[in-house]
């Protein structure tokens, strides 16, 4: 009896426990299926890290750079005024010549013969006038004969003068002092009067001009600043300018910018401004590319923004991304004045204390929350650090 009772109790326990275990397993399976059917939302990404520059007013010297080219102060093309053979060249190519210095000698023999003939004719004509004059006074010769003799003498004198001029023209002289270039002819060359090809060119290099072509708006602005006293004056209606050479070095002597242009090119809307610079050492040569710099005074509340922080919208207007309240990104439309070194001078759109994004612009958009960090420019001569995630170059590759 006791054995049977225990067996029944075990059977009874099995009957009640087994259904509860199955129910629990079934519930766990259902929960697993539900979890598999529903996607779990990923955690939100952290705010993007950006580098910013906090704007502070600073004092800057405003300048205007005007690129241009040097032009000789005076240019003289040497051309013959009589026909003949070149007997001698009397200068060194590339050397300096003085005003009135002889440069070429054309064979003078035919012109000397013409001069001597004209001289003899003029002498004979004058002698006949001298003989007729007392005779005409006593009516020994007619007045008409005397007048004809006077006219002939005058004509002979004119022919003599022309022969003398042509003889002088066989000596080609330099009309100005300056530096002479290459000769286009050698001894024995036949030249003709007033030919189109110059034998040589003389250019006066001291002083020398620098011509710059700028929009008429620049001319108007410079004239207003000149009238207001913002530009350093170098004379009546002239501003002091400094020169930067093509290799980046500065030119020692200051020049004078002349506001003498009176017409605007209708096709381009530009004018040519001419500055005059002393050039005693002949360092400046015609055709050199140079840059004129005009100082326009000081500005004590200037806001300078690195150039990499300024972008442009579809209309071409300059814009910048600013970290505002709550570290939210704002887009500002700007009005820029000019570049000063590697920075833009901003006239409108930003204020002191604004945090302008200079690095990480590609990861942000207006309204996004970011983590700002103050930008530290690399020291001179130090290369900027490689972007995060980049692989440094391997040796030997």
How would you describe this structure to a colleague?
The protein is α+β, with helices and mostly antiparallel strands and 397 residues long. It has 4 domains: 51-59 and 299-374, conserved putative lor/sdh protein from methanococcus maripaludis s2 fold (Beta Barrel); 63-71 and 202-298, Elongation Factor Tu (Ef-tu), domain 3 (Beta Barrel), CATH 2.40.30; 80-107 and 170-197, OB fold (Dihydrolipoamide Acetyltransferase, E2P), CATH 2.40.50.100; 108-168, Helix Hairpins, CATH 1.10.287.470. Helix content is 26%, strand content 35%. The strands form 3 sheets. Strands 1, 15, 16, 17, 20 and 21 form a 6-stranded mixed beta sheet that branches. It has a 6-stranded antiparallel barrel with strand order 2-9-13-12-11-14. The protein starts with a helix and ends in a 23-residue tail after the last strand.
Notable features of this structure?
conserved putative lor/sdh protein from methanococcus maripaludis s2 fold, 397 residues, alpha+beta, Elongation Factor Tu (Ef-tu), domain 3, 4 helices, 4 domains, 35% strand
Give the SSE map.
Blueprint: H1 2-37, E1 48-54, E2 58-78, E3 84-89, E4 96-97, E5 102-106, H2 109-137, H3 143-169, E6 171-173, E7 178-180, E8 190-191, E9 200-215, H4 216-227, E10 233-235, E11 238-244, E12 255-258, E13 270-277, E14 289-306, E15 311-312, E16 318-323, E17 329-333, E18 335-340, E19 343-348, E20 355-359, E21 370-374
Parallel strand pairs: 1-21
Antiparallel strand pairs: 1-20, 2-9, 2-14, 3-5, 3-8, 4-7, 5-6, 7-9, 9-13, 10-11, 11-12, 11-14, 12-13, 14-19, 15-16, 16-17, 16-20, 18-19
Helix pairs in contact: 2-3
């Amino acid at each position: 009896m006791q054995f049977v009772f225990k067996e029944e109790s075990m059977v009874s326990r099995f009957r009640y426990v087994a259904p509860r275990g199955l129910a629990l397993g079934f519930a766990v399976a259902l929960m697993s299926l539900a979890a598999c059917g529903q996607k779990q939302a990923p955690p939100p990404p952290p705010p993007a890290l950006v580098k910013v520059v906090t704007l502070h007013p600073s004092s800057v010297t405003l300048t205007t750079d005007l690129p241009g080219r040097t032009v000789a102060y005076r240019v003289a093309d040497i051309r013959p005024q009589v026909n003949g053979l070149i007997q001698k060249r009397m200068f060194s190519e590339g050397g300096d010549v003085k005003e009135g210095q002889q440069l070429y000698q054309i064979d003078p023999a035919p012109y000397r013969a013409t001069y001597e003939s004209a001289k003899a004719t003029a002498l004979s004509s004058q002698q006949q006038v001298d003989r007729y004059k007392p005779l005409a006074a006593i009516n020994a010769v007619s007045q008409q004969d005397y007048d004809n003799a006077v006219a002939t003498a005058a004509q002979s004198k004119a022919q003599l003068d022309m022969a003398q001029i042509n003889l002088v023209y066989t000596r080609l002289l330099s009309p100005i002092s300056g530096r002479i270039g290459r000769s286009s002819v050698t001894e024995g060359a036949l030249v003709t009067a007033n030919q189109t090809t110059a034998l040589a060119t003389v250019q006066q290099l001291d002083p020398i001009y620098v011509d710059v072509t700028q929009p008429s708006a620049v001319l108007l602005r410079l004239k207003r600043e000149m009238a207001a006293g913002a530009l350093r004056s170098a004379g009546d209606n002239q501003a002091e300018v400094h020169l930067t050479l093509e290799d980046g070095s500065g030119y020692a002597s200051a020049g004078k910018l002349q506001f003498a242009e009176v017409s605007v090119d209708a096709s381009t809307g530009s004018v040519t401004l001419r500055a005059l610079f002393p050039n005693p050492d002949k360092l400046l040569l015609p055709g050199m590319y140079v840059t004129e710099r005009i100082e326009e005074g000081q500005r004590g509340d200037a806001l300078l923004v690195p150039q990499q922080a300024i972008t442009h919208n579809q209309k071409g207007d300059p814009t910048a991304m600013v970290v505002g309240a709550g570290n939210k990104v704002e887009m500002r439309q700007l009005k820029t004045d000019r570049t000063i070194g590697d920075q833009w001078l901003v006239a409108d759109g930003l204020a002191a204390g604004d945090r302008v994004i200079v690095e990480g612009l590609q990861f942000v958009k207006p309204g996004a929350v970011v983590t700002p960090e103050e930008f530290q420019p690399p020291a001179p001569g130090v290369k900027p650090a490689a972007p995060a995630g980049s692989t440094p170059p391997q040796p030997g590759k």
